[in-house]
Structure formats: C-alpha cells, structure tokens
C-alpha cells in the first residue's frame, strides 16, 4: 500500500508539471524609465522577464493591483495632467477614472474589498487624500486640511487608511484615519522633512513600514500600528522608500535611490530587514515607483 501511495503521489507531481500548473514565482509591478519615459512593468521577484504593460509616450506611475489581481490602477498624464486610470492585468482596456479639471491625481490604493480606491488629489498647493468608487464615481476629499497629505495605504481589514502629512513649514508625520476621514491618529509622533513617508501595512495588519530620515539618508523602518516598537530595517544609505510587503508577509520590496550616480534600483529583503538584494537597476530615478506585489 505504501509503495502504491508513493507512486500515486509521484505521478500526480509529474502530471501537474506536465500541464504547467506548478506554482509560479511571485510577481511585482513597478514604475521604470528604462524605455526613456516612465512605464509600468511586471517583473518576477527574482528580476526575471520584465514586461512593459503601458508602453506609450506618457508618464505612467503609481501602479496598484486590485485585490483579485484582475485590474491595475495607476496614474498617468496621457490626458495632460496626472489622473487615475485603470487597466486589465495584461495592460489592455485602459480607462481614465478621474477627470477633475485643475486636479493632479496620483497614488491610487484599492480597498481590500475592491469597491473603492483612495488616492492623492493635488489642486494648486493643496494635497489631500481622496476616495472614490472603483469605477471612478463619487470622489470625496477625506483630509481637507492645509497640510500636504499623501501616500494613502489601506489596512488589510479595510478599517483604516495610513498616510503621510506635512504641515506647511514643518516636516512629515505618519497618520492613520478611518475611511471616512475621521479619527485621525499620529503614528510617527515626530516630524521630518524627508522621513515619515510612504507607509504600508503588513498583511496581518499589525505593523506599518515606512521611510524615515537617518542622517543624510532615508532608510526603511517598521513599527506597531500605534507607532511603538519602531525598528530600522535597512542600512544602505541613499534614499530607501516606497516599501511594499509581500502577500505572505515574508518579504518587503522597496526602491533604492542613489544620490551618487542618480540611479534607482528595485530591492527585495526579508521582512526582518535581512538579506537586501538588488533585483533590477535603472539608469535614472522615477517618481511614483512604489512596487506592488501581485495578490495571491
């Protein structure tokens, strides 16, 4: 009986491999200027097979997966000013969602249920966190303050949105709020002109990772959701930010910007900060380059 079971298991493995159903390596979206302008690429977590999904003369940045992995939201200036767009996972069927005159819309972030998209809306010198239906209807400003509010990120349970906010004349702080804009709480408990930026939640909702200034550098830090137990994860120098947790919580992808040769590189490290590894390097920096892991 034991030999029969072993033989059956081996046949099942071979059959799965033959049909091409073996598990695929994780994939990420990221913005790159390797074609001469900012485009959105899909790439394996090992740096393999980069695929240009946008491939047009406009600047396409800030990619974000829908929770089911079927859609990608992103920001593009193909209509003149930056607006939020959405496309199929293969880059087809691009649709513009925001069309507010005089607004610059960036940094889309899907709610975990896929029904809403948070984003940053800039009008003049104001930056606010806004929210809309996933089809683009009912856009609503959440922050509505004189501060510059940016970098929205949904908690995994959909009950909170983390964001960075800079009071005029002061530095950035990391905050969390309810999805209706209420109950704003300070997480970083400090202000920094270059740090406290690009917060992102761990998949279990217990941690927030963000960029914080350390001397002349910006490094990746992690803390509990109340701001306690903060810990520095990277010690690479330069500017390290745009961190994104893998769906299983074991890895963190981020962008490393070198002020020396002004290049940008996609890095992946263990969630503990160990083993940071350069995955792909570009010749110049890209605004809006936060990587996005493909959902399971």
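^ structure tokens above, recovered residues below v
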């Amino acid at each position: 009986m034991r030999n029969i079971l072993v033989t059956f298991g081996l046949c099942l493995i071979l059959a799965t491999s033959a049909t091409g159903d073996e598990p695929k390596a994780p994939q990420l979206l990221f913005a790159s200027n390797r074609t001469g302008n900012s485009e959105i690429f899909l790439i394996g977590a090992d740096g393999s097979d980069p695929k240009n999904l946008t491939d047009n003369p406009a600047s396409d940045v800030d990619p974000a997966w829908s929770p089911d992995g079927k859609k990608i939201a992103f920001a593009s200036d193909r209509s003149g000013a930056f607006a939020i767009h959405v496309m199929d996972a293969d880059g087809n069927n691009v649709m513009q969602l925001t069309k507010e005159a005089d607004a610059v819309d960036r940094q889309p972030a899907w709610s975990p249920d896929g029904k809403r998209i948070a984003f940053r809306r800039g009008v003049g010198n104001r930056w606010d966190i806004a929210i809309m239906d996933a089809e683009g209807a009912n856009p609503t400003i959440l922050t509505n303050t004189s501060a510059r509010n940016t970098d929205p990120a949904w908690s995994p349970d959909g009950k909170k949105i983390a964001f960075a906010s800079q009071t005029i004349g002061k530095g950035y702080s990391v905050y969390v709020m309810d999805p209706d804009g209420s109950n704003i709480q300070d997480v970083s408990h400090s202000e920094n002109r270059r740090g406290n930026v690009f917060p992102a939640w761990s998949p279990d909702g217990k941690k927030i990772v963000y960029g914080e200034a350390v001397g002349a550098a910006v490094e990746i830090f992690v803390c509990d959701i109340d701001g306690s137990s903060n810990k520095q994860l990277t010690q690479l120098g330069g500017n390290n930010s745009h961190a994104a947790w893998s769906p299983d919580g074991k890895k963190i992808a981020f962008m490393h910007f070198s002020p020396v040769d002004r290049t940008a590189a996609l890095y992946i490290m263990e969630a503990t900060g160990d083993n940071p590894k350069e995955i792909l390097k570009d010749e110049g920096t890209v605004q809006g380059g936060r990587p996005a892991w493909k959902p399971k």
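The longest strand covers residues 116-123.
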